[in-house]
Amino acid sequence: MTVGLGAGLLLPHVALHPMIGAERTAELLFALGFGVIGLVSIIFSLLFLVVQWAATTFTPRLGLFRDDPLVWRTFAFSLGVFVFCIAAGLSIVSRTKVSIAVPVIAMILALATLAFMYTLQSRAFASIQLGPCLHAISSRTRHVVNTVYVRPLGDEDPARSSLPAEADGHPVIWPHHGAVLCGIDVPTLVEVARTHDCLIVLCQAPGQLLVRNRPVARIHAGTLPPDALPPDALSPDALLAALAPGVERTFDQDPEIGMRLLADIALRGLSPAINDPATAVQALDHIEDLLLLLADRELDVGQVHDADGTLRVMVPGPDWDRYVRTALDDVINSAQTVPLALHRIRLLLQHVLDAGPETRRPQLRERLTRVEQLIARCLPVSSAPTPVADTEPM
Q1: CA-closest candidate to residue 311, choices 386, 200, 391
Q2: Among candidates 35, 19, 54, which has minimal Cα distance to 265?
Q3: Torsions phi, psi of 237, nearest 5?
Q4: Mean pLDDT lowest for which of 1-5, 165-169, 311-315?
């Protein structure tokens, strides 16, 4: 808007030939400006319905389209074009001639706005289709997994330490209202712990709830006494400033959110109100891909050291059992009478069992046994005798 205002006030004073009548140009600018803002209002009003439809059809926790930078960038660009057209139109009202560059630039900006709108509508249409939606969730989750879990299974950190006793640390209390921990500024926490020669052990992982008057971290060793926090030592505000609270989970540092969203979509497909097991099967396809990605990754990555190799920050995180439980347990319970989904879950478990290491297989075998029992209950083998042919042998 600032750029549009500056250009709208300055460009009409540039004497770039050929020159045209200012009165008709001003009318054109006003028409373009109000046309753009009217189009933006209509499009964004319709997008509210898109967001509502995706929330009710897939899961209310799905905010991929709502959080897409294209949404607010399109709105910002459109407002800039509107301000430019109105400012330029007001600047040339009292003039007789104006450069033809003014309406040409206004037309180019209007066409660029239409291109933004087309892209935004295409993105909105994709967000209400099952295939693109599932692909977007799994792609974001794969990116987070590849960022957080960089070591293969068995490649343990040589400087890995055991978790100190919870009672030994000084608690840091969350003083605000309840919120979801959306992100952790780990480098800042490491620097704070190094400066005060202590170890910061967080109590919640990204995606979990911060509860008022409950500990969010415990500070161990260093310059701190066991029962008090002296004024010249680590201030709780410095630690709390490194935590980013929010109203809902995000993909930034939370690999589990993708599993939760895919499981939610599968659960909706299996619900009696929707009764669309094929949707659940498609969601299970992506769940299998993510479980295969996690099966051979080292998930214990919550210990962060400073440049000297000293352990400074410990962050809890989901283990393999937590991922399997989030991805499959609720879906298995909802699919007890749906053979199509049960067969797909059995195939998923068999694939992950074949690809995963032995340490990751007990949780899968337990669920595979349960799924096979449910399949046997849904599709029992007939125990009736085989009918005998009426004709006697020659």
Answers
A1: 200
A2: 54
A3: -60, -35
A4: 165-169
* CA 34 – CA 291 distance, rounded (Å): 51
> Residue 257's CB: how many other CB atoms inside 10 A?
22
The SS3 assignment for 244 reads strand
Q: Tell me the pLDDT band of 230, cut-offs 50, 70 and 90.
A: very low
Domain spanning 166-246: which CATH class is it, in words?
alpha beta
Q: First CA to last CA across the chain, in angstroms?
A: 97
Query: Above 90 in pLDDT, residue 220?
Result: no
Which residues in 176-214 belong to E strands, given as ranges? Answer: 179-184, 199-202, 209-210
Q: How confident is the model at residue 388 (pLDDT cuts 50, 70, 90)?
A: very low
Alpha-carbon distance 321 to 300, whole Å? 12
Strand partners, 172: 217
Give the up-direction half-sphere exposure of residue 229: CA atoms within 13 A in the CB hemisphere: 14
Residues 6+ apart with CB under 8 A from 315: 184, 186, 202, 205, 302, 304
The pLDDT assigned to 64 comes to 74
Strand bridging mode 97-99 / 19-21: antiparallel
Q: How far apart are CA 198 and CA 196, in angstroms?
A: 6
Q: Which residue has the tokens 């499009």?
A: 43
What distance in Å separates the CA atoms of residue 52 and residue 68, rounded to the nearest whole number? Answer: 15
CA distances from 144 to 45, 187, 320, 352, 384 (A): 32, 18, 16, 20, 53
Q: Please say whether the beta carbons of 201 and 314 come within 8 A.
A: yes
What's the Cα-to-Cα distance from 261 to each of 7, 68, 294, 323, rounded to whole Å?
45, 17, 17, 12
Cβ–Cβ under 8 Å, residues 36 and 82: yes
| Predicted confidence band of residue 162 (pLDDT cuts 50, 70, 90) | low
Q: What is the mean pLDDT of the chain?
A: 85
Domains of the chain: which residue ranges?
Answer: 2-128, 141-149+255-307+317-378, 166-246
> Half-sphere exposure (CA, 13 Å, Cβ side) for 207?
17
